[in-house]
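Progress note, sequence design subtask.
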C-alpha cells in the first residue's frame, strides 16, 4: 500500500494515474491533518473488526498490493453523484458523508461511513455512475482501488466477493431505513423517534435501559431524516425533558423505549 497526501478535490478528480511514494511514519514525525496513518492493510489495527478488513492473510496481501492510500481534508469530495464510477475507497481513518441531491439543491444524508467501511461499491460493481456524493466529514485517510483491479481481486478471492455482497446488503438495508424516515413517518416527532429506535444499542439489564453511541451532529441527523437542525435540537430537548432519553456526550441512553414506541403508534 502506498501513501500520499491529497489536499484538494481537484487532485482527487483530475490527477492522472501515477506511481505513489511510500510514506514511512517515524516517531515524532508530523502527519497530515494530525491523522494516525495506517501504513498497510497487513498491519491495520482494525482488520479484525471491520467487515472488509477481516480477510485472510492471502487476501489482505492482494488487497494491499492494489491499494493506493491518500489523506484528505475535511470537506474533500472523494466522488460526486453522477460521476463515472472509477473505483472504491476503503476508509482507514475518519468519517465520510454519503448524500444525494435534488435538482433544486436539497440534499439528504443516506449514510455516514465510518473507519473500515467501503464507499463507492455499488457503482464500481455495476459499472453505473456513482449514485451518491462522498464527502469527508473530517480529515480522513482512505485507500483507493481502481474498478478494474477491484473486480479482478473479487474474482480471485471468493471470501472478498462474499464480503462485498454483505456490504451491498447493508447498503440496501440503510436505504430501506431512509425510506421509512422520509416516507412512512408522518410527523417530525415520529421521524426522530424512529431514528433513535433504529440505532444499534446495547441493553443494560440492571437499569432497564438501552445505550447507543451517536457521533452525528444534530445537523447531520436532520439531513438523514428530512428535518431542519433547529427542529431536531428542539425535539431532542423535548425527549430529554420527557425522560425518553438521556444524552451523555456521544452516548445516548434510551430510558423509556415504550414511550418512544407509543409516538410511532400515533
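Output:
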Amino acid at each position: 500500500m502506498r501513501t500520499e497526501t491529497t489536499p484538494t478535490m481537484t487532485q482527487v478528480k483530475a490527477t492522472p494515474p501515477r506511481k505513489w511514494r511510500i510514506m514511512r511514519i517515524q516517531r515524532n514525525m508530523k502527519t497530515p491533518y494530525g491523522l494516525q496513518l495506517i501504513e498497510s492493510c497487513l498491519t491495520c489495527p482494525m482488520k479484525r473488526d471491520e467487515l472488509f478488513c477481516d480477510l485472510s492473510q492471502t487476501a489482505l496481501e492482494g488487497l494491499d498490493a492494489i491499494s493506493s492510500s491518500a489523506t484528505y481534508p475535511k470537506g474533500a469530495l472523494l466522488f460526486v453523484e453522477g460521476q463515472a464510477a472509477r473505483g472504491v475507497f476503503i476508509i482507514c481513518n475518519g468519517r465520510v458523508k454519503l448524500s444525494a441531491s435534488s435538482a433544486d439543491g436539497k440534499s439528504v444524508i443516506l449514510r455516514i461511513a465510518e473507519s473500515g467501511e467501503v464507499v463507492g461499491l455499488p457503482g464500481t460493481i455495476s459499472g453505473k455512475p456513482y449514485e451518491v456524493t462522498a464527502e469527508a466529514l473530517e480529515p480522513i485517510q482512505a485507500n483507493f482501488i481502481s474498478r478494474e483491479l477491484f473486480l479482478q481481486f473479487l474474482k480471485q478471492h471468493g471470501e472478498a466477493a462474499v464480503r462485498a455482497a454483505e456490504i451491498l446488503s447493508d447498503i440496501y438495508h440503510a436505504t430501506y431505513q431512509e425510506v421509512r424516515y422520509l416516507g412512512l413517518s408522518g410527523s417530525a416527532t415520529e421521524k426522530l423517534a424512529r431514528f433513535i429506535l433504529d440505532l444499534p444499542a446495547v441493553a443494560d439489564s440492571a437499569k432497564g435501559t438501552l445505550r447507543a453511541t451517536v457521533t452525528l451532529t444534530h445537523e447531520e441527523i436532520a439531513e438523514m431524516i428530512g428535518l431542519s437542525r433547529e427542529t431536531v435540537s428542539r425535539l431532542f430537548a423535548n425527549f430529554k425533558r420527557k425522560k425518553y432519553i438521556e444524552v451523555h456526550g456521544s452516548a445516548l441512553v434510551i430510558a423509556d423505549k415504550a414511550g418512544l414506541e407509543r409516538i410511532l403508534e400515533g
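The two ends are 53 Å apart (CA to CA). Work on this subtask will continue into the next period as scheduled.
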